[in-house]
Amino acid sequence: MRRPGARGAALAGALTAALVLAGCGSGSGGTAAELSVSAAYMPQPVSASMAAGFLTITNKGGTKDELTSVTSDAAGSVTVHETVGGAMREVDSLEVPAGGRLQLASGGNHLMFEKLKRKPLQGEKVTVELHFADSGTVEVEMPVESATYTPNTGS
Known about the structure:
- By secondary structure, the protein is mostly beta strands.
- It contains one helix and ten strands, in the order H-E-E-E-E-E-E-E-E-E-E.
């Protein structure tokens, strides 16, 4: 017994699979992440043991990356925090989207410097190393600003 509907369905399925596979190699634009860092600063800490850090990471590439950790000789540890609904929590990584940016800002995602080796003062710079899943390490000089500093966010 011949089933013409089954043959048509099989042909349609094969054609769909071929189109899906053909699409996998084209149009992905998979250029590597192209990261740059701007607007980095640390408000002069009020505590002798903790400080916050803020910056913007821009990705002009066609592939996302992830900020996986941060290190600095100024602190015993630097952790990455996410703020959602007013609640802060430490996270293992934050995504830097392809063609987008990751903004670490007061009241939002940020860096926490813990166990400061000494209290950074306004006018000084703190060196940090940003570690990314795919792009390696980027070193940034983070100026220490006044505790009430508000950056110009017009960019």
